[in-house]
Amino acid sequence: MYLRYSARRVGLMNLLFLVFGYEMDHILEEGNRVYEESAKLLKLKRSQKSEILKKMAETIYSFKAYAHKKEVAMAAQALIRAHPCLRMTTGEDGALGWKRHMGYKLASYRNNLAKAGVAEVAINTGRRSRNNPNNDHPHQNIKKARKAEVNYITNLPKDQTPATLEKMREQIMHEVEKTERNYLVIGKLMDTTYALCRQEIVGAVGAPRVRDVVDRWPALLMESQVVAEFHRIKNVNLRTQFYKELDRHTPRLITLFRDNAIKTGKIAEELAKLMRIYDIQSADGPDLTVTPVALLTVVTDDTTDSALFSPESICIVVEDEILVNGPTNLADSFLLLFGYIYALDLQYPKKLELTFTFIQKVVMCLEDNKPLKGRLLTLKNDLFNE
After folding, report:
1. Pick from 36, 82, 169, 266: most CB atoms within 10 A?
2. Who has greater pLDDT, 2 or 235?
3. Rounded to an integer, what distance in angstroms lies between the CA atom of residue 378 and that of residue 366?
4. Is pLDDT at 136 greater than 90 in this prediction?
5. Where are the domains positioned within the chain?
6. Phi first, then psi: what are they for 269, rounded to 5°?
């Protein structure tokens, strides 16, 4: 099973050391020497230019299937820095022309991979055309990584078939039902069946109900497997990264929160906005309708403000129903909720989009190269400018 590494900025910078092949590398080396001596640009044949673009497309795809325009621009700039003889007359840095050509080449490369059956891009085929006028628009609702996922969807392992993976899935269900679970076996089976699970979640024509997903993949109700699934998707240890950055930023965040609350003179009201409290003895219970994701904290009548962060219990709510009982520690439960958003390919709730985007980009350092919106950018600057 093919899994790519994290597409961080440093990865694109490695394009400086990209090897095109003996003949092309020799041509570029000579071109750089002439450019350094006389500032004369290298004139490429069509086949040579195509060779460079193909290699660039392959390399960019190895980092990210649907690279952002900013990332393509970074790749073009890296190419020019490594080989200044390839500068074009368009654009101040000489990379604008290459950026445009790379964009077209990437689209063509993805199309070829889709025809070859590569799952990551094949899921977006069969869109509107002359023969299928009622299908989705080619550029709308594209299924791609939107939260900096690295392994968003993958092909099945070469030594496995859908039938063999289905048997493994059934074995997982049997193992989870046991009183004494073998966590090592469950983990290995979940690793092997990862592609099948993701194709069911991401590759379905319509988004499957979360309850249906966890009924088929009950291991995802285990905290250890949510953390493991996040690692399969992102190549990042969810728990380690979250708490490392939380410990780093918490003192400054508390200071910023207090300063803002003092300015408004509504400290208690601001704290109350952080959560809604429900009485454990309430007969009716909370109304969970139209609740995409939430943490439901259960407290007693005599609960103090400080105890709100260690309540009687915390339930993780997804799609209007309680999915699992999370840890009683608020931070651990939020960590698990964040993991579920990735594992189940959920969108951030609109009302909490800024909150989760802040956690993703600033706390978890999962950068997708999309600019932060005004308030988040201000908060990030305040956080790092002590």
Report:
1. 169
2. 235
3. 18
4. no
5. 9-122, 162-234, 238-384
6. -65, -40
